[in-house]
Specification:
By secondary structure, this protein is an alpha/beta fold. The protein contains 8 helices and 7 strands; from the N terminus they run βαβαβαβαβαβαααβ. The longest helix is centred in the middle third of the chain and has 26 residues, at about 105-130. It starts with 10 loop residues before the first strand and ends in a 7-residue tail after the last strand. Bound molecules: nicotinamide-adenine-dinucleotide.
């Protein structure tokens, strides 16, 4: 993984830091020397990850779909006293492969709440803090499912992720005058524990066969993109939807 000395001492909030891509991001930013705030609903796991990382890791248990809980979580970041430089919105996902016809309203609302409403709530809370930073960054994790229909998935999830891509463009437009960049990364299928429970080996093989680079993604494929977007080298990159998908979506 590339080293970005400027990330040392920056304060980074990562939602969904207890597992998968978010956990890998927390470890990678910590290794770069950042102060890392692990936001997740799974208190036990973020406490255990933070304890293994060290004293620049701060576990903050929060349900990011709850506006009051989000406000309290960011107040906890303020109390630590390092400000906020990078906000990474990684929590998300879905648990069932469904068609539009199969999806009930409860599942639709739950999926939209986690994947679209929560990113809005968290970005809104992050903005006044990022305005005080000299290198403010928002990185929203979307999905290939918000860019194209590449395999059976969740229509609510795909719609929410497409929404976050557009939300990110609004953020880039509104926050540019404050020197804050806002970008999204759109991962391809990645073998996190959640995805292992969702998709069969055959299914994963079918997805990999459609990728020009010949495999599904690893968490590091996405974390490398996050580090780049947080770095000084990406200071003039904003509003971008970066496809970390091995060429599966080519525009
Ligand atoms: N894994 C993939 O194949 C893949 C592909 C494309 C996009 N993505 C996106 O990448 C991101 C991470 O995916 P992953 O597979 O690593 O997920 P994951 O399920 O492994 O981790 C998600 C984390 O979010 C946390 N979380 C769930 N609901 C929460 C809530 N209400 N409040 C706070 N935390 C909550 C979970 O506890 C978990 O730690 C998601 O946004 C997902 O949509 C993943």
């Amino acid at each position: 993984m590339a080293i970005y000395p400027e990330i040392t001492d920056r304060a980074v909030v990562i939602t969904g830091a207890a597992a998968g891509i978010g956990e890998a991001a927390a470890v990678a930013f910590y290794q770069q020397g950042a102060h890392v705030f692990l936001f997740d609903i799974d208190r036990k796991r973020i406490e255990s990850i933070a304890a293994k990382l060290g004293d620049r890791a701060y576990p903050i248990a929060v349900d990011i779909t709850n506006p009051d809980a989000v406000a309290s979580a960011f107040e906890a970041v303020d109390r630590v006293g390092h400000g906020l430089d990078v906000f990474i919105n990684c929590a998300g996902g879905y648990q069932k492969l469904l068609t539009v016809e199969m999806m009930d309203l409860e599942e639709w609302d739950r999926t939209i709440s986690l994947n679209l409403r929560a990113p809005f709530l968290c970005c809104q809370a992050a903005i006044p803090r990022l305005k005080k930073s000299k290198a403010g960054r928002i990185i929203n994790v979307t999905s290939i499912s918000g860019r194209t229909v590449h395999a059976a998935s969740s229509p609510a999830y795909g719609a929410a992720k497409a929404g976050v891509t557009q939300l990110t463009r609004f953020l880039a437009y509104e926050l540019g005058p404050f020197g804050i960049t806002a970008n999204s990364i759109a991962p391809l299928t990645t073998l996190t524990p959640r995805v292992a429970a969702l998709r069969s080996t055959e299914d994963l093989g079918r997805i990999a066969a459609q990728v020009p680079l010949g495999r599904i993604a690893t968490v590091d494929d996405h974390v490398s993109a996050m580090l780049y977007l947080a770095s000084d080298g990406a200071a003039f990159v904003t509003g971008v939807a970066l496809d970390t998908n091995g060429g599966r979506v080519m525009m």
